[in-house]
């Protein structure tokens, strides 16, 4: 469904999350110039109606909004501020929205650099996973000025159902990291609960259904169940492919640890979860969905 105001959008980063997000913007009628280092991702976006650019710089022609969705702080800083950084080339008065999950300090640094060049910037990391990205039902967790968010709102609404303004630049990243710490802990605990039940003769599907309507209810039981076959559309049911990578969760929990030190807050469960995802990565599962952490305690 088209929105009332169409925008010319530069979209950089077409991975498991960025690709579906860009597709929903195209469906809403926006004009997209896109770039990704993976040719297949570019081809998929072009097939959906985007203009495939030859470089990140090539996406910027006449761009009113620039959106990035990249794996980590270093990638985002390199994109905007590196030797070939695009920040200096973004058209005047354009709005910059970074949807990556990065360090809050990096988000604040980027916003300050953007402001110095007359550009408005938001950090708008997302929650909802690949299913939410495909369905256009993501939650956006936004840091930045309220009036800038209002400029961005029509575009964000084409990709998500929930938009939370949590504070100034960097606050979006803080809130996202809090969410992901809880998610990482809950996923690991859900996997252990299922492993314990199955080892004693319980059906994982029935156990999951019971938990989903009881106090153990969570996204891990209802959407991204870690036991293969319980939910046909969950990564676990396709060999833990796609979804949110274990190493990305490990990266986020590393950012959580840094944030906790800076804030002077103890996070013992967060640290335990970080160790579990590190162990899963060392076991060769880093590229699998983070629900594969169950492999540490169950033969699945």
Automatic annotation (TrEMBL):
Active site per database record: 176
Domain 3-hydroxyisobutyrate dehydrogenase-like NAD-binding: start-end pairs: 170-296
EC main group: oxidoreductase
EC number(s) recorded for this UniProt protein: 1.1.1.31
A GO term for molecular function: NADP binding
Pathway(s) it belongs to: Amino-acid degradation; L-valine degradation
Keyword flag NAD: yes
Entry superkingdom: Bacteria
Example GO biological process: branched-chain amino acid catabolic process
Entry annotated with the keyword Metal-binding: no
UniProt xrefs under InterPro entries: 3-OH-isobutyrate_DH-rel_CS, 6-PGluconate_DH-like_C_sf, 6PGD_dom2, 6PGDH_NADP-bd, HIBADH, HIBADH-like_NADP-bd, HIBADH-related, NAD(P)-bd_dom_sf
Every 6-phosphogluconate dehydrogenase NADP-binding domain range: 8-167
Keyword vocabulary terms for this entry: Branched-chain amino acid catabolism, NAD, Oxidoreductase
Family: Belongs to the HIBADH-related family.
Protein's name in the database: 3-hydroxyisobutyrate dehydrogenase
Source organism of the structure: Xanthomonas campestris pv. juglandis (Xanthomonas arboricola pv. juglandis)
């Amino acid at each position: 469904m088209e929105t009332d105001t169409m925008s010319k959008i530069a979209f950089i980063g077409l991975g498991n999350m960025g690709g579906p997000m860009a597709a929903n913007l195209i469906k809403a009628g926006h004009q997209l110039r896109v770039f990704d280092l993976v040719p297949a991702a570019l081809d998929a976006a072009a097939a959906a109606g985007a203009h495939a650019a030859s470089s990140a710089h090539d996406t910027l022609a006449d761009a009113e909004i620039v959106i990035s969705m990249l794996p980590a702080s270093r990638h985002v800083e390199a994109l905007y501020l590196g030797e070939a950084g695009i920040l200096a080339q973004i058209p005047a008065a354009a709005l910059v929205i970074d949807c990556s999950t990065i360090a809050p300090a990096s988000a604040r640094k980027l916003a300050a650099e953007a402001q110095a060049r007359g550009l408005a910037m938001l950090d708008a990391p997302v929650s909802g996973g690949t299913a939410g990205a495909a369905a256009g039902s993501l939650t956006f967790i936004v840091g930045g000025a309220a009036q800038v968010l209002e400029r961005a709102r029509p575009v964000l609404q084409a990709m998500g159902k929930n938009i939370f303004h949590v504070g100034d630049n960097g606050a979006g990243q803080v809130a996202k990291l809090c969410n992901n710490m809880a998610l990482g802990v809950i996923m690991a605990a859900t996997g252990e609960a299922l492993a314990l039940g199955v080892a004693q003769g319980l059906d994982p599907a029935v156990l999951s259904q019971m938990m989903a309507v009881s106090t153990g209810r969570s996204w891990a039981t209802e959407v991204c169940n870690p036991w293969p076959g319980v939910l046909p559309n969950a990564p676990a049911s396709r060999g833990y492919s796609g979804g949110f990578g274990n190493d990305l969760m490990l990266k986020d929990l590393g950012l959580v640890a840094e944030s906790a030190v800076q804030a002077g807050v103890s996070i013992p469960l967060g640290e335990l979860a970080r160790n579990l995802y590190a162990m899963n990565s060392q076991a060769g599962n880093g590229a699998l969905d983070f629900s594969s952490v169950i492999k540490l305690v169950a033969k699945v």
